[in-house]
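Hey, I'm writing a tutorial for new members on how sequence and structure tokens pair up, and I'd like a real worked example in the thread rather than a made-up one. If someone can provide the structure for the chain below, I'll link this post from the tutorial.
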Amino acid sequence: MHKGIRRLASALLIAALAACGSAPVGPGFYRVERGDTVSKIARENRTTVASLKRWNGLANPDAIEVGQVLRVAPPAGSATSAQAPSGSSNSAKSEASAQASSQKAGPGVSLVWPAQGSVIRGFDGKNSKGIDIANAAGTPVVAAASGSVVYAGNGLRGYGNMLIVKHDDEYLTAYAHNRALLVKEGQTVQQGQQIAEMGDTDSNRTMLHFEVRYLGRSTDPARYLPPR
């Protein structure tokens, strides 16, 4: 096995174990278990399938996987909360409301855009595990949030020169196709710090491929980035 691939596999395994582990999920979230369905999870958490689909970006609610973490209560401060199914008691509604208000609003990390440019491809969870941002070669690539570099190299075919930054026990970000990497494994980086130069390694055009991973699973970066 190629030395770079072994290094990448090791880094990803360590990061994934740290992210997924056996740590309990926070209030308002649920980890999928064997035999679960979206309708069952909705029923047991006194919400609706439509709300679960909206909160978790589930295009296909039948595609949930064991170990996947789902939001089962609305984010704190949301304008509306899910309506409890008919037959639920007022005490159940109050309990759900209290659970929702105890959550922190938004994602666990606050991200900034990793590069200037045009988004030429969005996230679909299948063919695209992140977003592609196009600009000129050498465009600065910055850390979307503060963290530690857990991988810096070109050992994964199709990604070119890539960086992976771990932000906490839940979130990782990945930056691919760079022309040059400006940080090393083990280095601590600050949000907004330049970490690479945009390039076209293992790509047919100059761009940054940017991914966000929550508890080891790819998620849509657009859900975490500020509008611009």
